[in-house]
Amino acid sequence: QVQLVESGGGLVQAGGSLRLSCAASGRTFSTYAMGWFRQAPGKEREFVAAITWNGGSTYYANSLKGRFTISRDNAKNTAYLQMNSLKPEDTAVYYCAARTGGGYYLDASPGRYDYWGQGTQVTVSS
């Protein structure tokens, strides 16, 4: 069983930055691919970014490339999402997810991930 706990969300003005963290339980975090997704009210869950087990490769939603950066620190069992130049349309609940089988895969499909955090709210004011 893997537990994921997100933190770092909050209220920020447009143009500002936030860094989300996702702390994972267990000793095999370094073997997982990790992903970030978001869900705005009334919308489907949307892929944000993914990273392979060793951080060697990353993948972003086209619309977010250049503003968001995914990273991980396997020594701390933590994945991160750095969000810059935030816009009101970035307002959503942000979730991290772990893909325990195939840590070298970068997947945009939520169904490929085995474990999810509870989410952290990000609100960007105009």
Walk me through what this model shows:
The chain is mainly beta and 126 residues long. 0% of the residues lie in helices and 47% in strands. It contains no helices and eleven strands. Strands 2, 4, 5, 6, 9, 10 and 11 form a seven-stranded mixed sheet that branches. A hairpin with a 4-residue loop joins strand 7 (68-73) and strand 8. The protein is globular. The chain starts with a strand and ends with a strand.
Structural class of the helix and strand makeup? Answer: mainly beta
Note the total helix count. 0
User: Could you report the average pLDDT, rounded to the nearest whole number?
Assistant: 95
Number of strands: 11
Please write out the topology.
Elements (H helix, E strand, L loop, with lengths): L3 E4 L2 E4 L4 E7 L8 E7 L6 E6 L6 E3 L7 E6 L4 E6 L8 E8 L15 E2 L3 E6 L1
Parallel strand pairs: 2-11
Antiparallel strand pairs: 1-3, 3-8, 4-5, 4-9, 5-6, 7-8, 9-10, 9-11
Keywords:
4-stranded antiparallel sheet, globular, 126 residues
Entry summary:
The chain is mainly beta and 126 residues long.
